[in-house]
From TrEMBL:
Cellular component terms (Gene Ontology): plasma membrane
Segments passing through the bilayer: 12-30, 50-72, 140-160, 172-190
Chief location category: membrane
Annotated ranges, domain VTT: 30-159
Membrane topology of the entry: Multi-pass membrane protein
Metal-binding among keywords: no
Protein name: Membrane protein DedA, SNARE-associated domain
Keywords annotated in UniProt: Cell membrane, Membrane, Transmembrane, Transmembrane helix
Source organism (scientific name): Massilia yuzhufengensis
Subcellular location: Cell membrane
């Protein structure tokens, strides 16, 4: 994956940064932990502009979050609760869990969106409760943009500062990203296997 991302960004520039960051938010296994550091390497070599990379990365991150936000908002809480009751085992949540999550989001929504954009895996999924809770689009965009800019800035700075070692860094980041995904997958399988139906 590291080789694919590096070659793609070398040829596609800002459009590539935007596209990969949008995909990363729609399909989480494409990690921003690889995309933005390499964009920082390219900036350090003088092939791309730092501001352009940050704008492209942040805009792509927001563009990828919007389908999840609108999808959840259109589908709605009540339909999701009914769906969860009918498919509780593989969803690993119940209608009651959804009510509790949305109640917590109503109390802390802005903080959750802001800091959720800084956490791997949560970064994508945080758009769903925002949509279900009908958080205003303006607030969602504002706090998502701040959080996404901080995340892309941190990763880009890392790549910029470690320019000469980008190939060595890739050897470590790629397995770590796959390892995190493997842990999340194992946790999900465990939840499915150990799920017990709620008592009537």
């Amino acid at each position: 994956m590291f080789k694919f991302i590096t070659e793609f960004l070398e040829t596609s520039g800002y459009v590539g940064v935007f596209a990969l960051m949008a995909l990363e938010n729609i399909f989480p296994p494409i990690p921003s932990e690889l995309i933005m550091p390499f964009a920082g390497f390219v900036v350090a070599r003088g092939d791309l502009n730092l501001v352009g990379v940050l704008v492209a990365g942040t805009a792509g991150s927001i563009a990828g979050a919007l389908p999840w936000y609108y999808g959840a908002r259109i589908y709605g809480k009540e339909r999701l609760k009914k769906f969860a009751d009918g498919h509780a085992r593989w969803m690993t949540v119940t209608a009651e869990d959804i009510d509790k999550a949305i109640a917590a989001f109503d109390r802390h929504g802005r903080t959750v969106v802001l800091f959720g954009r800084l956490i791997p895996a949560i970064r994508t999924l945080i758009s769903v409760p925002a949509g279900l809770a009908c958080m205003s689009l303006g607030q969602f965009l504002l706090y998502s943009t701040i959080g996404s800019l901080a995340w892309t800035g941190l990763l880009t700075a890392g790549g910029f500062l470690l320019e000469n070692n980008y190939e060595q860094i890739g050897k470590y980041i790629d397995p770590v990203s796959k390892g995190i995904f493997g842990i999340l997958l194992a946790w999900y399988i465990y939840r499915v296997i150990t799920h017990r139906p709620a008592k009537a």
